Amino acid sequence: MNLKNIKSNQIILFVVALMLVTAGYLSYTIKGTPVSSNIVSENEVASIGDAQLVSSNNIIDENSLNIASVETSTNTQTTQDDYFATSRLGRDTMYSQMIESYQNLLDNQNVSEEQKTVATQEITKINNTQNSIMICENLIKTKGIDDVVIFVNDKSINVIVKAEKLEPDTIAQIQNIIAREMNAEIDNIHISNK
Questions:
Q1: Considering Cα of 106, then 113, then 117, then 152, what sign does the dihedral take?
Q2: Radius of gyration of the chain (CA)
Q3: CA-CA distance, 163 to 171, in Å (whole number)?
Q4: Per residue, what are the HEC states of the chain?
Q5: Residue closest to 191 by CA, chosen among 180, 33, 57, 162
Q6: Model-level pTM?
Q7: Residue range 87-128, pLDDT digits in tens
Q8: C-alpha separations of 105 from 101, 127, 168, 177 in Å
Q9: Inter-CA distances, 81 with 42, 85, 147, 163, 164, Å
Q10: Which residues contact 81 (CB under 8 A, 6 or more apart)?
Q11: What angle do CA 64, 70, 71 make, to 5 degrees?
């Protein structure tokens, strides 16, 4: 190594160390506590995993339980909403990428007319599928379903419904909508709840 490189590396290390010391000093003087106050003590580390005695004389406040229950149900609700939104976004992104790939084939001068015809047919098929999915999801929501997401894989159609449980008449209504709007066989429609 070059002597000049060693000196420049040492200078850089010295400057970094000086900056860290300065930041620690400023933190100490501003907060009045040392930077290392967040470090766990040896006794705390040694007691990890040990059983601790708990008094049964403690009274649990019912309001705190209700708040925890509401927070849990809200988190579950948000997770479900996120699931449906994320699933729809993922599905729509996949369709957009497929259309973009076919569009690139159409724009390519080296692709034969036969391949361009197939690409055009696939773009039309994807657009028709997306349109059918949107119509089905909206019609299913009119039947009292809070949220729904539909996935189409060749002839198999998977419908995930936001509901605690599905009644047989609701399942029949969903199957009827999917069969009618997507020209699907009832045996190929798979409905589940989330």
A1: negative
A2: 31
A3: 11
A4: CCHHHHHHHHHHHHHHHHHHHHHHHHHHHHHCCCHHHHCCCHHHHHCCCCCCCCCCCCCCCHHHHHHHHHHHHHHHHHHHHHHHHHHHHHHHHHHHHHHHHHHHHHHCCCCCHHHHHHHHHHHHHHHHHHHHHHHHHHHHHCCCCCCEEEEEECCEEEEEECCCCCCHHHHHHHHHHHHHHHCCCHHHEEEEEC
A5: 162
A6: 0.59
A7: 999 999 999 999 999 999 999 999 899 999 999 999 999 999
A8: 7, 17, 46, 35
A9: 44, 6, 8, 12, 14
A10: 147
A11: 90
- The full set of domains in the chain, from first to last, is 71-193 (1.10.287.4300)
According to DSSP, the β-strands at 189-193 and 156-161 are parallel
One-letter amino acid of 185: E
Q: Of 88, 95, 89, 94, nearest to 124 (Cα)?
A: 95
The Cβ of residue 112 has, within 10 Å, a number of other Cβ atoms equal to 10
